[in-house]
Design brief:
single chain, alpha/beta, binds uridine-diphosphate-N-acetylglucosamine, 420 residues, four-stranded mixed sheet, elongated
Length: 420
Amino acid sequence: MGAFVIKGGKPLSGTVSVSSSKNAILPIISACLLTTEECVLKQIPGLDDVSGMCELVSNLGANVEVNGRARKISISTPQLTGHTADYELVSKLRASFLVLGSLLARKGVAKVALPGGCPIGSRPVDLHLKGFEAMGAEITTGHGYVEARCPDGKLKGANIYLDFPSVGATENLLIGAVLAEGRTIIENAASEPEIVDLASMLTKMGARISGAGTDTIVIEGVEKVHGVEHTIMPDRIEAGTIMTAAALTGGDVTLTNVVPEHLKPVTAKLRESGVEVIEGVSEICVKSSGRPTAVDIKTHPFPGFPTDMQAQFSAYLCFAEGTSMIVETIFENRFMHVNELKRMGAQIRLDGRTAIIEGSEKLQGAQVRATDLRAGAALVIAGLAANGVTEVLDIHHIDRGYEFIENKFQRLGADIRRVQ
Ligand code: UD1
C-alpha cells in the first residue's frame, strides 16, 4: 500500500491543467453498450475506477482498446455476450450499477449485484429500481443481486418522479430511456454537469433528449443509436481540490481546462473566505495571502456546494480565523476525515451531520489514513499547509479519483512524494 509523504508550508504557484472527470466518464462508458458501433472517448483520465469500468463492460462483451498515451478509449460492442455484473466489481466500484440501464435498454435483461454499503453512507438504489419498474421492468432482488427483465424485451417510456435528485439514478434511467418505447420524463432529476455531459454524448449518438441540466429531462425513445467520438468534460472536483490547496498555502495558481461555471459554489466560498479568484473562459486563477476567514458551508445537489468538496473544505477551514460550520446533507457518514484531521491538531466538534470547526493558525504534520477518496484529498491539502511532515496512508483511495495528484502538486512547487 502506498503513502504520500508531504513536507508542508510551501505556497503553490504556477499553472496546472485539470484532468477529465471521473464521475462523467463512468456512466459514459456504460452508455457505450447501447450501440453495436464504435464509441471513441477522448481525454480519458488514467484512473483505477476507469480501468474497473472498462473491465466490467469488457466482461459483458465489449471490445475495449485503451490507448493511454493518446488518452483515448475505443469501445465497440457488436454483441452483448453477458448480462451479469458480479459483486466482485460492483462492490469495488459503485458506478458499475449504471450498467443496469444499458443492459435493460439493449438486451431487456440484466443481473447486477447490489452495491451494498460504503464508508460514507448506506447508499441505497431504490430510486433506480422504482424508475425501471415504472418503465415496465420486472425486478426481483435476492441473494445479493438485482434481476431485471422487460417482459416484451424493451423498456417503455414512463413518467418518473425521483424522491431525491440522485445523480446515479438520473444517469441510469436516462441511459435506459434512450432506447425505450415512447417518451420518458424524469422529474426532480439531478442537474449535475456530468449529466449534461452524458446527455450530450447520447444526443451525438442519435438519442433525443431535452432538459438535461434542469430538473426535468425528457427522452423520446429511438430504435437505435450509433457510434460517437466524445471528449470527456474537465473534472470540477479535481479543480476544486487544487483551488482549495492553492488558497490554503497562500499560493498563486492558474488552472486550465476548467469550466468556471461548474465551480461557482467553490469559487463563491473561497471568495467569501478572502481569496481572490479570477475566472477566464476555460481557466481560473486563485491567489491568496494570509489566513482564510471562517465561512459556513451546507452541501446540496448542484448547483449547491458539492458534497465531494466538503472534506477538502473541512481541511481548509481548520486553518481559518474564526469558527466555521459545515452541514453535510447528502451522505449520512461523510466526516471520516475529521478524526484524522484532529490527529494533526484540528479543533473540530461533530454533532450528527454538522461539524463545527475552530480555526487554528497551524496544524502539525502527522501520520494519517485516507478512509475514502475525498477524505484522502482533504488530508493531502492539510499536509501541504501543515507544519512539518505529514504521511497520508492508504492512498489507493486517492488514486481512484485523482490522476497522479502528487505530480500536479509537485509541478506547483509542493514537497510531496509517493512511497510504497
Ligand atoms: C454521485 C457521485 C458522487 C457524489 C454523489 C453526490 C459518481 C460516480 N458519483 O454518486 O461522487 O458524491 O453523486 O453528488 O458520479 N439515494 C437513495 N436512493 C437511491 C439513490 C441515491 O436514497 O436510489 C441517496 C444516497 O444514499 C445519497 C443521495 O441519495 O444519500 C445522493 O446519492 P446519489 O446522488 O445517487 O449519488 P451517487 O450517484 O451514488
